[in-house]
């Protein structure tokens, strides 16, 4: 089954909120035009309509458009009112059909704020928690953080719907919670969780382990880039002296604690070296070199997902504020990003791929995999 057929079969399961006698276009058609237009460079409902009108002849080769191209008002109304939770579940199902996760693949979970999407009278902007598969270069799913809540309540909801067996889940200090660790283990995955002051006693216990521990494994890596030399020392302890049995029971499956010491030096500069220490707990049994790699991989969600959404899709500037518009357009962006990142014939960045797809129907077909090319 190619990508278009997969999109149709999965997203075609969604409930259409519109009255049947007032529908000129089926929901699958509107969804597919939205996805194609975003791939081709559209940022708004008006641009989706304009792009679709420019590509009407192409779209008619595989879509039923007897009533022409839907208006921007139609796109706005549909994407603002379709059920976001249902849309997200379909998105996760589609990603699962798109690629299989590798054993021990790092799945980074982190949140991102869509700063422009703050509706009048609302206390906060729209905040999404997403899961990123580092090796596959795929967004696995997202959930919206409730306005009166935070990532701590959103992460378990995301974990619940993801298929993450045999992977390594990495989360920053906000997600270092006993319930989240238990949820990850319940899904037959392992975790690496950053520990900071929000878990004060655990942090102190870990520091004591490294201060007084006698059996500490270590690995050193060095990276030279843009006039900077960064040295990272990763220390790992398995034989606990200060982490009690009670603490072990609280943190499901904990096997090792990790300390990463980073020193950044600046060539041709009088600026003094910068040193930082970071601490982690993990349910894995591995050596420091493996942890160096996994912890570095976590930042892929910032560099390959969040940064790309802002630079290539201008998501941070989005001002969509009606009902579910911001949340659902964020899913459109992530569908487009997954397709663009997994098209490998063009050796260019995502932003350039969007332009190429907008200009070149043959390349757009490759991205969509409408034909077996």
Topology:
Elements: H1 3-11, H2 27-39, H3 45-54, H4 56-59, H5 72-81, H6 84-98, E1 106-114, E2 126-133, E3 138-144, H7 151-161, E4 168-171, H8 178-186, E5 190-195, H9 200-212, E6 217-225, E7 228-237, H10 245-250, E8 256-266, E9 274-282, H11 288-298, H12 300-311, H13 325-341, H14 350-359, H15 361-368
Parallel strand pairs: 1-4, 4-5
Antiparallel strand pairs: 1-2, 2-3, 5-9, 6-7, 7-8, 8-9
Descriptive overview:
With 373 residues, the chain is an alpha+beta fold. It has 2 domains: 3-82 and 343-368, no CATH class; 89-305, Transposase Inhibitor Protein From Tn5, Chain A, domain 1 (Alpha-Beta Complex), CATH 3.90.350. Helices cover 42% and strands 20% of the residues. It contains 15 helices and 9 strands. It has a 9-stranded mixed beta sheet with strand order 3-2-1-4-5-9-8-7-6, sandwiched between helices. A hairpin with a 2-residue loop joins strand 6 (217-225) and strand 7 (228-237). Helix 2 crosses helix 13 (325-341). The longest helix has 17 residues, at 325-341. It is elongated and about 75 Å long. The two termini are 13 Å apart. The model has no long low-confidence stretch (mean pLDDT 89).
């Amino acid at each position: 089954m190619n990508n278009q057929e997969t999109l149709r079969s999965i997203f075609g399961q969604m409930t259409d909120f519109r009255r049947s006698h007032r529908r000129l276009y089926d929901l699958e058609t509107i969804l597919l035009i939205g996805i194609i237009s975003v791939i081709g460079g559209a940022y708004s409902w008006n641009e989706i309509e304009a792009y679709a009108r420019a590509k009407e002849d192409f779209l008619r080769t595989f879509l039923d458009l007897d009533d022409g191209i839907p208006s921007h008002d139609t796109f706005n109304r549909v994407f603002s009112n379709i059920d976001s939770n249902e849309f997200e579940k379909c998105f996760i199902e589609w990603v699962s059909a798109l690629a299989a996760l590798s054993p021990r693949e790092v799945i980074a979970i982190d949140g991102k704020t869509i700063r422009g999407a703050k509706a009048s009278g609302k206390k906060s902007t729209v905040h999404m928690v997403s899961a990123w598969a580092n090796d596959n270069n795929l967004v696995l799913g997202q959930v919206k953080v409730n306005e009166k809540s935070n990532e701590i309540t959103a992460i378990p909801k995301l974990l619940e719907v993801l298929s993450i067996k045999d992977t390594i889940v990495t989360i920053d200090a906000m997600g270092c919670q006993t319930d989240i660790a238990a949820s990850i283990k319940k899904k037959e995955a392992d975790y690496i969780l950053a520990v900071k002051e929000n878990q004060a006693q655990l942090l102190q216990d870990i520091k004591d382990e490294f201060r007084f521990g006698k059996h500490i494994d270590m690995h050193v890596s060095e990276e030279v880039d843009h006039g900077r030399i960064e040295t990272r020392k990763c220390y790992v302890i398995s034989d606990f002296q200060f982490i009690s049995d009670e603490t072990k029971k609280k943190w499901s499956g904990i096997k090792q604690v990790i300390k990463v010491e980073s020193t950044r030096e600046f060539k041709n500069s009088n600026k003094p070296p910068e040193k930082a220490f970071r601490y982690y707990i993990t349910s894995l049994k591995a050596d420091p070199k493996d942890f160096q790699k996994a912890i570095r991989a976590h930042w892929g969600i910032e560099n390959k997902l969040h940064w790309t959404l802002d630079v290539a899709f201008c998501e941070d500037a989005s001002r969509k504020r009606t009902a579910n518009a911001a949340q659902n357009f964020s899913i459109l962006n992530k569908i487009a990003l997954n397709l663009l990142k997994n098209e490998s014939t063009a050796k260019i960045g995502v932003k350039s791929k969007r332009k190429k797809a907008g200009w070149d129907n043959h390349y757009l077909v490759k991205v969509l995999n409408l034909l077996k090319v």
